[in-house]
Amino acid sequence: MNLSRRAFARAAGAGAAAAVFAPLISVKPLFAVPPPAVKGDIRLSANENPYGPSPAALDAMRDAFAKAWRYPDESQDALAGAIAKSHSVAHDQVLLGDGSSEILKVAAAAFTGPSRKLVMAAPTFEAIGAAAKITGADVVNVPLDASYGHDVAAMGAVAGAGLIYICNPNNPTGSITPRASLRGMLASVPSTTAVLVDEAYFHYASSADYESVIPLIASRPNLIVARTFSKIYGMAGLRCGYAISSHETIKQLAAQQAWDSINIMAIAAAQASLGDTQHVVEGRKRNAATKADVVASLKKLGYEIIPSETNFIMINVRRDVRPMLAAMHTHGVHVGRLFPALPQHMRVTIGKPDQMQAFVKAFGEVVGA
Ligand SMILES: Cc1ncc(COP(=O)(O)O)c(C=O)c1O
């Protein structure tokens, strides 16, 4: 996207008010480019991991410069093998992606179309909806249930579904869909409907009611699980994710993908990250501690937070969130965009402790506490 946001707003003939709110609009492909970074601003808007990659990943990338001239086939193969081993699946059950975004896109391309709907929650991570619309598919949005889990019964009951997308834990709510309801849905949905469970935030979830569905692929060949190195592994800028499914489904996904879409730096960093389990343990611990402090501070200010199993929280601000997003921005803190299904909630990524202290201070000032 070469047009700056300002140039885009001008080109679109947007007025001054629209220009102010342009950074807050929620659809990724054209509009979600973050506002220009201002030096010193605190970025809590994209659920990134502010601690970055493992030191081993940084070393591996330095070493990988020497491999930059070659296509990454062997390295790709080695990484897929290591991922397969870590999940106790066969090598041919893994497909690497240019971020898990690419996995979502190829799944939409493979399993949705004019007569095959996409079924997804509202609100959830929107990217796959945009990809399905390109295939000519109807996109059916099913509201989350009262506990902010996916309404799996309603989702499973949609006729003509080619693909059901479940984000667990869910972005933007940080909530989980309990293991029993997810298992029930997977057992009852027609075997012709593919199901994609996006586990981008898997590592942050600690609820006893939460589980990965990777082991269920053995009994449901068109169940796809997407994972990413962008979150706990701190590699959002490098772009590496993957899918686990049956070999037959992986072949269908791979047919939609460009060859060699994952670069050697991302592969080297991902491979090294897998070997640094301590980085994951520490990342989870740091996130939980900082999140607990922020939640306590917000509760003291009188605000409710949806229970979060992720590295972000969703705050009920009890008013239209849009002016607050702009006000936080002027205080130098970038928080999540507007999610139209929850227009009175603000999504905030858990950053480092000092960043979160600055966030709480700015939030207090914006709400006039
Ligand atoms: C639920 C979910 N899935 C997928 C992605 C895409 O991640 P990436 O393409 O960086 O792997 C994100 C990014 O925020 C996300 O929140």
Overview of this protein structure:
By secondary structure, the protein is of the alpha/beta class. It has two domains: 37-52 and 279-367, Aspartate Aminotransferase, domain 1 (Alpha-Beta Complex), CATH 3.90.1150; 55-275, Type I PLP-dependent aspartate aminotransferase-like (Major domain) (Aspartate Aminotransferase, domain 2). It has helices spanning 5-11, 16-21, 28-31, 55-64, 73-87, 100-111, 127-134, 152-156, 179-188, 247-254, 264-275, 277-300, 321-330, 353-367, and strands spanning 42-43, 94-97, 117-122, 139-143, 161-167, 194-198, 223-228, 241-244, 304-305, 312-316, 333-334, 345-349. Helix 5 (73-87) packs parallel to helix 11, helix 6 (100-111) packs parallel to helix 7 and helix 12 (277-300) runs parallel beside helix 14 (353-367). It is globular and about 55 Å long.
How are the secondary structure elements laid out?
Elements lengths: L4 H7 L4 H6 L6 H4 L10 E2 L11 H10 L8 H15 L6 E4 L2 H12 L5 E6 L4 H8 L4 E5 L8 H5 L4 E7 L11 H10 L5 E5 L24 E6 L12 E4 L2 H8 L9 H12 L1 H24 L3 E2 L6 E5 L4 H10 L2 E2 L10 E5 L3 H15 L2
Parallel strand pairs: 1-11, 3-4, 3-5, 5-6, 6-7
Antiparallel strand pairs: 2-8, 7-8, 9-10, 10-12
Helix pairs in contact: 4-11, 5-11, 6-7, 12-14
The structure holds pyridoxal-5'-phosphate.
